[in-house]
Amino acid sequence: MRLLKIIPDNTNIGFVRIRHIAFGVTLLLTIAALALVFTRGLNMGVDFVGGVSIEEKFTSTPPLDKVRAAVNRLGLGEATLQQLGGADTVTIRLPLPDSNDPGATDRMVEQVKGALAAEFPGATFSNYSTVSGKVSGELIQNGALAVLLAIIGIAIFSWLRYEWQFGVSTAVAIIHDVLMTLGFFALTQLVFDLNIIAAVLTIIGYSINDKMVIDDRIRENMRKYRKMDMGDLIDLSVNETLPRTVMTSVTIMLALAALLIWGGHVLRGFTAAMMLGIVVGTYSSIYVSSSLLITLGLKPGFREDRKAAAESNAERIQPRS
């Protein structure tokens, strides 16, 4: 029985040849992502902005203006509404009650439930969650710190294991992947919560795993083909690992597609971020980080080779006693 091969073994694609086009596209996408984040902003979930999030399911698609009016009449603060999953499910965000009474939030939720049930017969309450403003601020700081430390740690690891060029290219690729994810959420206005932070960290893990496979092959070929042009060597390395890269990405995308379809709206943002991250991470590993090694001046041979050569030269020029 023949094994399924999406990419033939003798593939010879010139990735390095179009690296300047890839760099240009990457730069434009990065600028667009940053512009979206700063102009549209992220639709922060309750995890990050604090407040009460109430999920209500209606018998049919409700007019959001009518839902908002019904909630605002209660005098609980300005309500923010968003449809999740099917158009019949609405998330209602409200500020936390001013009272220090532990039962004030429960009473607020009961008021909203009663008002919506009276206005929309058949509407059912799903769940609610609360996060204080202090906790939400700490979550923002911790989430950003986790992503930053992950990028720095991985870049240092690549630097120590290979060469400084690998560390820089790794950091650039990961930052690109993270910015693409943020730009996607700014564009779609999907809720950005702790689940998305988990997705971003998972994307970083997948991207670095894919990149390490390519970097290891580049390292092997740098030792094996010391006279080969660096562009040809990188093309060879990427093409040799391409079947594994594509097969891994395709199988993960199939699993994520099933999760997107049947996983429910709670996981929809996480799954969408993961699917985007797989595509962007594969692109950045092949077209951005690998080709960037040439721009950074990487040459065949490694530190230990240069150190051994230097020691050998030092022994030859050392005066005899």
Topology, element by element:
Layout (H helix, E strand, L loop, with lengths): L18 H21 L3 E2 L1 H4 L1 E7 L6 H9 L7 E4 L5 E6 L9 H16 L4 E8 L1 H29 L2 H25 L2 E2 L1 H31 L5 H33 L5 H28 L7 H15 L4
Parallel strand pairs: 1-6
Antiparallel strand pairs: 2-4, 2-5, 3-4
Describe this structure in words.
By secondary structure, this protein is of the alpha+beta class. The chain is built from ten helices and six strands. The protein has helices at 19-39, 46-49, 64-72, 104-119, 133-161, 164-188, 194-224, 230-262, 268-295, 303-317; strands spanning 43-44, 51-57, 80-83, 89-94, 124-131, 191-192. The strands form two sheets. A four-stranded antiparallel β-sheet has the order 3-4-2-5. Strands 1-6 form a two-stranded parallel ribbon. Strand 3 (80-83) and strand 4 form a beta hairpin. Helix 6 runs antiparallel to helix 7 and helix 7 (194-224) packs antiparallel against helix 8 (230-262). The model has no long low-confidence stretch (mean pLDDT 77).
